[in-house]
Amino acid sequence: xxxxxxxxxxxxxxxxxxxxxxxxxxxxxxxxxxxxxxxxxxxxxxxxxxxxxxxxxxxxxxxxxxxxxxxxxxxxxxxxxxxxxxxxxxxxxxxxxxxxxxxxxxxxxxxxxxxxxxxxxxxxxxxxxxxxxxxxxxxxxxxxxxxxxxxxxxxxxxxxxxxxxxxxxxxxxxxxxxxxxxxxxxxxxxxxxxxxxxxxxxxxxxxxxxxxxxxxxxxxxxxxxxxxxxxxxxxxxxxxxxxxxxxxxxxxxxxxxxxxxxxxxxxxxxxxxxxxxxxxxxxxxxxxxxxxxxxxxxxxxxxxxxxxxxxxxxxxxxxxxxxxxxxxxxxxxxxxxxxxxxxxxxxxxxxxxxxxxxxxxxxxxxxxxxxxxxxxxxxxxxxxxxxxxxxxxxxxxxxxxxxxxxxxxxxxxxxxxxxxxxxxxxxxxxxxxxxxxxxxxxxxxxxxxxxxxxxxxxxxxxxxxxxxxxxxxxxxxxxxxxxxxxx
Length: 487
Ligand code: NDP
What we know:
Layout: E1 2-3, E2 6-8, E3 11-13, E4 20-24, E5 31-36, H1 40-55, H2 64-80, H3 82-93, H4 97-118, E6 124-126, E7 133-141, E8 144-148, H5 154-159, H6 162-168, E9 171-175, H7 182-193, E10 201-203, H8 208-217, E11 223-227, H9 230-240, E12 246-250, E13 256-259, H10 265-277, E14 289-293, H11 294-308, H12 329-345, E15 347-350, E16 366-369, H13 376-379, E17 386-392, H14 395-402, E18 410-414, H15 418-427, E19 432-435, E20 454-455, H16 460-465, E21 468-476
Parallel strand pairs: 1-5, 8-9, 8-11, 9-10, 11-12, 13-14, 13-18, 14-17, 16-17, 18-19
Antiparallel strand pairs: 2-3, 4-5, 6-7, 7-21, 12-20, 15-16
Helix pairs in contact: 1-8, 2-4, 3-4, 4-6, 8-9, 10-11
The structure holds NADPH dihydro-nicotinamide-adenine-dinucleotide phosphate.
């Protein structure tokens, strides 16, 4: 059992209230780790450390090349210590060890990319405002920032925020999910070993309220970056309004996956499965609404169900397992509730059962058809291994159906016709559109939502912009100063 403390001002710190939370592996229901149940006072101590570290410029004042070295050292550590970190991720989330082992180097690549970006930050110079004048546009770090992260990809989501905030010169307080705080606390140790000055990175563990809530409303935090549910995102945006802090919110989705008659059917079927089986469906970009054109509906459905027969659900550490556990008993109840609703409103084509005989929370991949358009199975984010199969006739029908949602995170279009791909790609309302590919991300590519899926972008060069503020400086030659022309 791993026992952790908060990480504040470069040191491990016991919680003010003295209380701890114990995390059980959702695949085995045995205790694997403990960390503090933080208080508002713990948050205040961490913010005070981050504010002091920001004020004296111990990090922001360094050359970008030095900041880059620290970020690259973390990247190297992640790439060289995959097994130990993947074990922590798998034990706390219930995801397969094999998948967790892919996520650690994935996170490492983002740190490497951000290390390069740190050195590319620069402003603008305007030299065309008259011979006696120059204007500079400076990009400055936004200040102490708060990061609030979820349980589905603990290290990857942290890595879509933290290295960019550090690259910009910000100081940071993180509240990880109360269920999966281990790797965030490991990152604190790794950063210290890499030479990060004390106070620049702080972690306070505990529940959304009070820890996350206090961070979101804290007057000394200038930016809050959050990934999680739309409901919590709205609370955070409201709390952040108190001191007009900037908010970045990466929220849920109900993402359309659209298969046309002329698609490469094998590839479409494989990716449709990935879209709701990967990470047990706990994926904000999951393709949870699969629209199939009528001409291939039968063939697609048959191939989908046949291939799903090869998905092996169970022990996350067994080499043959392709899908692990559901994160918690509460989430298990939520997902099985949706399946029961689907059973009463529509028809289950595959799966539909939870797995008995195993100690943890396991659900079969489940395909549902014949649902009424009003069903919440089609409208709400389930965040589990459940997909709704829906037929369509024309391109216009597919676009209308895809856009019949308040969310706008991701879409996927499968066709061999460039006209169809561009027409649908341009018309669907989402932050990212994949054509003949799915869940295809790279550190260089920005990701984020529109509408109820949130705002702000992670990854790519845009991610650093989120943690910088612009300052405009106008410099007048003092020999010509003082001339004033009344308008
Ligand atoms: P939440 O949105 O509740 O949690 C995300 C993070 O926010 C956690 O660290 C959580 O803390 C924290 N939090 C909770 N309440 C507050 C608050 N009032 N102020 C500040 N921070 C807060 O998501 P859940 O983990 O409960 O998952 C629920 C649903 O959210 C899922 O079923 C899914 O639909 C969606 N979700 C979407 C994700 C995405 O990637 N877009 C990721 C995770 C969830 P704590 O851990 O203590 O709850």
